[in-house]
Design a protein that fits this description.
This protein has one domain. Helices cover 15% and strands 55% of the residues. It has two helices and 13 strands; from the N terminus they run αβββββββββββββα. The strands form two sheets. Strands 1, 2, 3, 4, 5, 6, 7, 8, 9, 10 and 13 form an eleven-stranded antiparallel sheet that branches. A two-stranded antiparallel sheet has the order 11-12. A hairpin with a 5-residue loop joins strand 3 and strand 4. The longest helix is centred in the last third of the chain and has 20 residues. The protein starts with a helix and ends with a helix.
């Protein structure tokens, strides 16, 4: 029941991202705890990190599945809010998924973003959708990264279980998996649409002057 409640909460909290396709999915290569959440001594802020976490890319637009390394560094931006037996808190920071450890080699996908983390029991979800959240993505492989974008990271097997320490999410370790989405076809800017319209009007004018 708690897992269901978390899933429903995450769905409700995640902005609707129209016309976005999945561009990359990954899972951990090992069963170790790749993610570390660290609350400060006063229980007022938390950082969530992953350093050179070995992962397996299971799907990538413009590339082939392969092994990679995940780096994640995000920090809380407000106080945690209790939600039933769980809670939520906003975070911002950056991530990178590269072929080599230490942000080296091919940049499969990286970026910075602002988001919300929701958790209950042994599970937590990081959800971000742009708009209205902030997501900036770059890649050496994926050909199109146009908005709308979305990020969903799943933290499983939290030890200890999800808790709020004073004003922030308490320290924990966990495994991680993730899904990233982007618009597969760039949306034309208004200026581009105007130029396209003028071009079509020009073609129509020429056609009228020179009938078939």
């Amino acid at each position: 029941m708690r897992t269901l409640a978390l899933a429903l909460t995450a769905l409700l909290a995640t902005p609707v991202v129209a016309s976005a396709d999945t561009i990359l999915t990954f899972g951990q290569s090992a069963s170790n705890s790749a993610v570390t959440g660290t609350a400060n001594a006063g229980g007022t802020a938390t950082t969530i990190t992953a350093n050179n976490a070995a992962i397996s890319i299971t799907q990538i637009d413009g590339g082939v599945p392969s092994s990679a390394f995940l780096d994640l560094n995000i920090a809380s931006t407000d106080a945690a809010t209790p939600l039933g037996s769980g809670g939520s808190q906003h975070y911002s920071g950056s991530f990178s998924i590269t072929s080599g450890a230490g942000d080296t080699g091919t940049n499969f996908l990286s970026g910075n973003f602002a988001d919300i983390v929701l958790g209950v029991g042994p599970s937590a979800v990081l959800a971000s959708g742009s708009p209205p959240d902030i997501i900036n993505l770059t890649s050496d492989v994926i050909p199109v990264l146009a908005p709308p974008n979305a990020i969903a990271l799943s933290f499983a097997n939290l030890v200890p279980a999800f808790n709020i320490d004073n004003e922030t999410i308490g320290s924990f370790t966990s495994s991680v998996s993730g899904t990233f989405s982007a618009n597969a076809v760039p949306v034309p800017e208004p200026a581009s649409l105007v130029l396209l319209g003028l071009g079509m009007l020009g073609i129509a004018a020429v056609s009228r002057r020179h009938p078939g």
